[in-house]
Amino acid sequence: MKGLLPRWFGLAALLLVTLLAIWVLNASTAGKRAQGCPQGCALRTTRRPGPLRVMSFNVLHGFPSFENLGDRLELAAAEVLRQDADLVLLQEVPWTRQVRDGAELLAKRTGFNYLYLRAQGNRWAILFEDGVAILSRFPLKEPAVVELKPREGFFVPRVALSAIAETPWGDLSLFVTHVAGSDDQINRGQIAALREFVAFRTDGPGIVAGDFNAGPDTPQIESLTKIWIDTYRAVNPQEIGLTCCIDDLHAGPSEPLEERIDYNFLLPGGGMHVVSAQLILDQPFPFAGNWLWASDHVGILVRLEFP
Q1: Domain of 36: which CATH number?
Q2: What distance in Å separates the CA atoms of residue 244 and residue 175, rounded to the nearest whole number?
């Protein structure tokens, strides 16, 4: 009996260490496949006439306080409906105990199909994660995912999500990403990896949107604009188009933006051209006697015309 006790304690300790190691390794992992409802869930199939409307937006999860997260997601959903967007490419889409599945919530509020890919965290291990998502009025098919390397840190993976939207004008490739911003070399490497992923997935028309965490005058963004069309700059050549960052979500309308790090690129092909591109969610909303911004970023809405 005396000999059994140390053995049981040893086995229990080994089991505990193994479980702890499994928890640590899964506390923040990139998703291996997209989840959601890519077809058959869209309720809003009718649309206002006009060009294809594509919206991109970093919704800001706000970990760990998740400041006004539920209210801000509702503001984002309302803007999708107000603009009657056809496709929505989102970053920092959260899963939290407060709002549960943010991608599903936004899809239900807007009546769209959707795909979601975890970037960081893990809802099962730490009750939080965030990722990128595609909402679509049209059916989505052929989802593909990639983790962008090099990693920013062991617990900070970054990803890109791709799918094809079956629009009335034909198939359109979609890509959404959120690139690392803490180190310029890592940022360059991840954008290069994204470029390879896009080239591998399509040689036709498409949209690549997201938070690139790099300004328009950086070498990595300049390299992209040599092969992709910066939709906002294409139709607003004299405007800076700042998209980030709001330091205080309850600041008033005079709160200044500081950087341009969010882009909505058009992949040339198929004769598509940019009709217009504008900033949206670029003003705070009245809220409980104060103000509330939908995010620390503003969104971009692009209108594209097919031949």
Answers
A1: 3.60.10.10
A2: 21
- Report residue 250 CA to chain centroid gap: 23
Domain tally, the chain:
1
Q: Where are the beta strands (DSSP E) in 168-212?
A: 170-178, 206-211
What is the average pLDDT score of the chain? 92
Tell me the DSSP string of 238-262.
T-----B--S-TT--TTPPP-B--E
Residue 253 lies in a domain: yes
How do 128-136 and 140-148 pair as beta strands? unpaired
Check residue 259 and report its DSSP letter: B
Average pLDDT score over residue span 289-306: 97
Tell me which residue of 294, 300, 299 sits closest to 75, measured CA to CA: 294
Length of the chain: 307
Name the β-bridge partners of 101: 95
Q: How far apart are CA 230 and CA 234, in angstroms?
A: 6
With tokens 């920013």, the residue in question is 152
Determine, yes or no, domain membership for 164: yes
State which residues form the domain around 120: 31-305
* Model pLDDT for residues 143-166, shown as the tens digit of each residue: 999 999 999 887 799 999 999 999
Contact, 282 vs 244, CB < 8 A?
Answer: no
Bridge partners of residue 291, in order along the sequence:
286
